[in-house]
Amino acid sequence: QVRLVEVGGASKQAGGSLSLSCTAFHRYSSDSVMCVAWFRQAPGKKREAVAAIYTDDGTTMYTDSVKGRFIISGERGKNVVYLKMTGLQTEDTGKYYCAMTWIRCPTTFADESTYNYWGQGTQVTVSS
Known about the structure:
Layout: E1 2-7, E2 11-13, E3 18-26, E4 35-41, E5 48-54, E6 59-62, E7 70-74, E8 80-85, E9 94-101, E10 117-118, E11 122-127
Parallel strand pairs: 2-11
Antiparallel strand pairs: 1-3, 3-8, 4-5, 4-9, 5-6, 7-8, 9-10, 9-11
């Protein structure tokens, strides 16, 4: 079984920066590789994919609205993935979830059915 724990949500002003972390607790090999994605859900809106990383080779993917502002990072065997967010906008407000699967991230990383495990989420609020 896998448990994902997100940490780092906070209230920030537009233009600010914030880093989130997602730690995967599991009983498998510490050298395990995984695809970890960040999703977010704003009030009244559908959950959307933000970024994903395949920890084996560091391949990353981003949704267009965060390209150039967010960086997802993680290392094989570390079981922690980070989402560094800069140039925050009010549109970035939402509950941020990490999700994980043991396979390589598909190009359609936004497909929620790809992921076997989900965290409980952490709230990010950006005010103008």
